[in-house]
Amino acid sequence: MTAARSHDGPGPLRRAGRATGRALRAPFTGTARGIRRATHAHGAGESGLGKLIELHAVNGAGDVMITVALASTVFFSVPTDEARGRVALYLAITMAPFTLLAPVIGPLLDRLPHGRRAAMAGAMLARALLAITMSGAVATGGLELYPAALGVLVCSKAYGVVRSAVVPRLLPPKFSLVKANSRVTLAGLLATGVAAPIGAGLQTIGSPWPLYGACAIFVAGTFLAFTLPHKVDSAKGERRARLIVPHHEDAAPRPAPGKGSTRAGLRRGGNGQKPAKERPPGLRSVGGSVLHGLQANAAHRALSGFLIFFLAFLLREHPLAGQSAAVSLGIVGVAAGVGNACGTAVGSWLRARGPEVIIATVLGLALSVAVLAAVFFSTVLVAALGAVAGFTQALSKLSLDAMIQRDVPEEVRTSAFARSETLLQMAWVVGGGIGIALPLNAVLGMSVAAGILALGAATSVRGLLGAARRGTPHPRVA
Question: Residue 441 carries which DSSP code?
Answer without folding.
Answer: -
